[in-house]
Write a structure and sequence with these properties.
Thrombin, subunit H, 5% helix, six-stranded antiparallel β-barrel
């Protein structure tokens, strides 16, 4: 994704992110893995990790904010995925507004 397509200011920040892919079929256990953030915005997160992901998949996220010593539960959709030369992946996630998540606390990170 190019910088021109970004609508929000990005904060470079590496944090541990637990990702759970949302799977419609309840007979299939959810895929859960950890990766790292590269940067944050009010509307999204760029992730870096070894797990291949698919565009347009919904995910549940738990972002561990080390400096604040708290975990934020968020939901979002994978908007783009790129494989790096190291056989790792970068993915851009758009966060969803949902009352049963910590999106309000997430937005406070960008209020200054």
């Amino acid at each position: 994704m190019t910088d021109e397509r970004r609508r929000a200011i990005r904060i470079s920040r590496q944090e541990t992110v637990k990702v759970e892919l949302v799977i419609e079929d309840s007979n299939i256990p959810p895929l859960v893995f950890e990766c790292n953030s590269r940067d944050f915005s009010r509307q999204g997160i760029r992730l870096h990790g070894r797990q291949p992901l698919e565009k347009d998949i919904d995910v549940n996220l738990m972002v561990h904010l080390q400096e604040e010593q708290k975990d934020l539960n968020l939901v979002g959709t994978i908007k783009w995925v790129t494989e790096t030369t190291e056989k790792e992946y970068l993915a851009g996630l758009q966060l969803s507004e949902s009352s049963d998540t910590d999106i309000g606390e997430w937005h406070l990170l960008f209020s200054e």
